[in-house]
Amino acid sequence: MTCLGFCRLTVRICVLALVASSIAQAGPGDWSGQGPFGGSIGVLQADPTVPTRVYAVTSNGFFRSDDAGTSWAVRETGLLDAHPTNGVLAVSATSSGILWMFDDAGRLYGSSDGANNWLATGFVLGVPISTNPVGLAAGVGNVVWLAANSGGLLKSTNSGVAFSPVTGGGFPVVATTVTLVATNPHDVSAASQHVIASTTSNCNAVTGVCPIYVSADGGATWTASNVSSTVTQAGSAQRLTTVAWGPSGNIYALYGDPSQTGTYLLKSSDNGANWTPAGVHSGRAIAASPTSASTVWLEPITPSNVPYVPVSKSIDSGSTFTPLPTTGRTTNGAFVPGASAIAISPSYPATPRLWVGTQFAGMFMSNDDGTTWTSSSDGITATDIRTVVVHPVDNTRIFAGYGDSLQDPSPAFYRSTSIGTWTVSNTGLNAWQLRTVMIDPTTAGTVGSTVMFAVGSGYDTTATRTLSTRNSGIYKSLDGGLTWSTQNGGIPAVGSPATGHYAGALRTVIADPRSCDARGPTAAVCDTGPLQTLYVTGGGRGSTAGPHPYRVMKSIDGGVNWADSSTGLPPDMYDQIDPNNCPSDTVDGVTPIVMDSTDSRILYIGTFASAVDAACNPTSPHNASGVYKSADAGATWTLFSNGLPTYPGSSAVYDTLSLAIDANNPQTLWVSTIGANFDAPGVIYKTIDGGANWFASNAGITGPDVRALLADPSIPGTIYAASGGLGPANPGGVYKSTDGGTTWMSMSVGLPAFSALALALDPVDSTVLYAGTTGGVYSIVQLPDGDSDGVPNLIENSGPNGGDANSSGSQDSTESNVGTTAPGLFGTFGWQAGTENATQAARGALLQQTLQSMQAQQLESGLDGGYFTVQVNGGCAQAVDVAPVNPGPLGKDSVPHHGTYAYPRGLLRFELPLCDAASVDVIFNAAAFGSGWSWRFYGPSTPGDNSTMGWHDATSLLTKRTATTWTMTLAKGQFGSYRPAVTGSILFEGGPAYAETIFTDKFD
Predict the structure, then answer these.
(1) I want to staple 40 with a disulfide (CB 3.0 to 4.6 A). Which of 59, 573, 589, 949 is the partner?
(2) What kind and span of H or E run contains 250?
């Protein structure tokens, strides 16, 4: 129940006295990542001083390769906001291992060891740097340059600790919007380094040319460049967007207004003092040879109505370009993914190595000057997985689909035949992205002839990339996902003459389990197939007022032909009174669809909508959206949304993006809605009368934005929910309910903050759960955990006092208010090694061996006990995700005059859902804390605010009771908790610390 006022919670924690270096990332019952590797590459830079080292900023964080791109590893130790995506990175060309990077909150970090460790410089950019990869440049020595957009041009002479605005010396005194800064990497003196700054202020109204300023003396004086451009765009802001510096003052740059017709290639042979067109070549990524002034590479911007041109090379200073071969650089043997970044080996041409980062298909590398290419993404966990499915017979075979790639190729479909090993398997799959992969269970007896369907969005041809050439988005495989074909039958073509079949981006596909023959809708399900009746949902083809067809499609011939099945869904409405200020009122599409397990005629769908706010036009009609039900196999649909939340002043329900139905009681369903307040917990509603009435059913959900629901068909009342999260200060996770959704418990230890977007259970062993995330596929083996605190029974039963660590007379594993675990288990139990497919007995035996090894290590170290126990008393009756935390990846915790803190006991993390306030007792075995010890909190100083993440003094939260015991006072929405108050939850992470300058032996 929810705490009213100040509820008292006592958490007794006895922590193993092990040094932090012995703590690893994964533990028993925790999530572990498996790949697949790849994703979106935003920035790619080769280290000028280490030829085999390459850096990449991706859609899921920062990575480094030490073997020329063969393998990659995340390098984020010390970043307060993990997994930065903005791509603002600068690498020193003169000092080995020196680099700087902004996180997504605008904090600047520096590294002196090639990104092994990052340290915040203390500078925070007040003006959002957005995703401007050309906004940061390394000077010589301690000089760093920053193009702060409307904040002007800034310069630091102390390695980014502080910046000063650049004015005077020829640079405009008045505020100038600076969008790019670049430095000549070949200069070795700060006083004579060449610097270029491009602006979007004081542009020529006739030609659209904006000023470019150049300094030849490290910024002491500036002159305006002479820009001779044959491409003018009156009224637009033409400026430099990317700069590639070659030898001897030769520069190539992309120039123009990206929001208009693209950017064009310019060149300069005098360090940017004068610019001339290098032919009329539009592009989005360039790279220059470090040794040859006439060699440059370009990723062209290809108009939508002409064939795509891949990365091209010029050896005549950009006058002409020759497309590089694409052998090995396709996603399915045909589609060539567009390049978002190009890097050249600093030893080129002696080492003719090139790297290409793509928009959605990861990294490619060539060791022969672009003649042949190989995938170079091993270790880059940035794939956006929106669908996961496990083969119903062979559970070693897992399938995953890449999502959110709209107009550029992604690998789309992955197959795994062993844990952590994935293969792109999309021959014939003309899909840019996939949202659902489905297996026909009646054909699964032989893996090689399993029938599979997938839906998403894609194109008919490799020639162009426009919506008009998009195919149906429905794909079928007859050989277990090895090869695919597009299913367009019956879907209206676009254009005259027809150029493609376009039914909008598709979301879900399901099959009628009784449709292998003429049996009735309530007969037994089919044993042999294939199944013939399928349903697909998606965006449809709406673009004008009126009916919006193909939001639901149906096939009765195994997917060969499709018919619109949207009758009863509301038409689109377009406001006619004030069309310039009021939005359209539309039901934009259908996301989930589920079928009654006992009657194939009964179907439910969830819709997402655009709504006209009543304040905008109170007389406008409003479309009804939410959940719709069909009792006639999709022939007609009726609104069943009573009780679901609506937009203010509208009958449109908040987007319903996931549905689950109870296979054992199909009158029971759950739906998640996405509300206006994304800080609030994701909301789940439940019906027990077939959708006639809905009521909130999400007690215990703390993460925002629930995107997936999954009901376990083998265990009545067990359902899972996946929450995406809003960053580290309000993380998402996976939640489990064993009482039909009345209460939910987080099971998110080890899962990334921006995480779960899809869920799948192993059909052979339902204790194994998979999650599709923005960082690939994660899995967890659910060991028995009777009290849902995140600690398996086997561990609690091996704790102090024979498993009764709180001396209550009962095993901790049987008490819902008690949890016992130990940091020493970190990294010692490797589920990720392939034990997902082991039996429970084998898992238990392995864990027992692990515990024995840990206990032997404790005795050898002279340590006694070593567990910490969480005991909950009072109104706040549950702790979840109780776990030790490795402080190492969090980076150095230093405070002036106090030295650098260390954590020989590790850190603690736990969450208290449905809790307003709590008192927490923390007791450590085998460790006495004398004077001088303090507590540190790692998290946001302002709950829910990612920009305030970091190390903080938590002394005010604690009172020392004895030499081994501390009492902590916490409250929701107050310092000491991650999440904002609206979540009704307290999430704490921290621990006792000492300053190395005081306690050199780590003990008082």
Answers:
(1) 59
(2) none
What's residue 260's pLDDT? 63
Strands (DSSP E) found in 324-418? 339-344, 354-358, 363-366, 374-375, 381-382, 385-390, 398-402, 413-418
Cα(697)–Cα(685) distance, integer angstroms: 5
What does each C-alpha distance from 274 to 169, 399, 426, 770 come to in angstroms?
A: 19, 54, 48, 57
What is the separation, in whole angstroms, between the first and last Cα of the chain? 42
The residue that leads in pLDDT, 484 or 468, is 484
How far is 339 from 341, CA to CA, in rounded Å?
Answer: 6
DSSP 687-702: ESSTTS--EE--BT--
Q: Give long-range contacts, CB 8 A cutoff, 24+ apart: 142-148.
A: 143/190, 143/193, 143/218, 144/90, 144/100, 145/181, 145/183, 145/195, 145/219, 146/181, 147/178, 147/179, 147/180, 147/181, 147/197, 147/198, 148/178
The tens digit of pLDDT for each residue in 692-715 reads 999 999 999 999 889 999 999 999
Task: Give me the count of residues in the chain.
Answer: 1004
Q: Give the DSSP letter of residue 103.
A: -
Cβ 149 vs Cβ 111: under 8 Å:
no
Among residues 96, 54, 222, 63, the alpha carbon closest in space to that of 153 is found at 222
Least confident of 99-108, 332-341, 399-408, 465-474: 465-474
Closest by CA position to 272, among listed 214, 352, 202, 339 = 214
Q: Give residue-wise pLDDT tens across range 237-246.
A: 788 889 999 9
CA atoms within 13 A on the CB side of 413: 29
Nearest to 440 by CA among 521, 510, 525: 510
Within 10 angstroms of residue 497's Cβ, the number of other Cβ atoms is 5
- The DSSP line for 296-314 is EEEEE---TTS-----EEE
How far is residue 456's CA from residue 819's CA, in Å, rounded to a whole number? 43
Q: What tokens appear for 700 in the block? A: 């215990």
Percentages of the chain per state (helix, strand, coil), in multiples of 5: 5, 35, 55
Beta carbons of 320 and 365 less than 8 angstroms apart: no
Distance CA 582, CA 955 (A): 52
**The 452-458 sheet, strands edge to edge:** 431-439, 452-458, 474-477, 485-486
Q: Which has the minimum average pLDDT: 16-25, 141-150, 504-513?
A: 16-25
Give tens-digit pLDDT for 733-749.
999 999 999 999 999 98
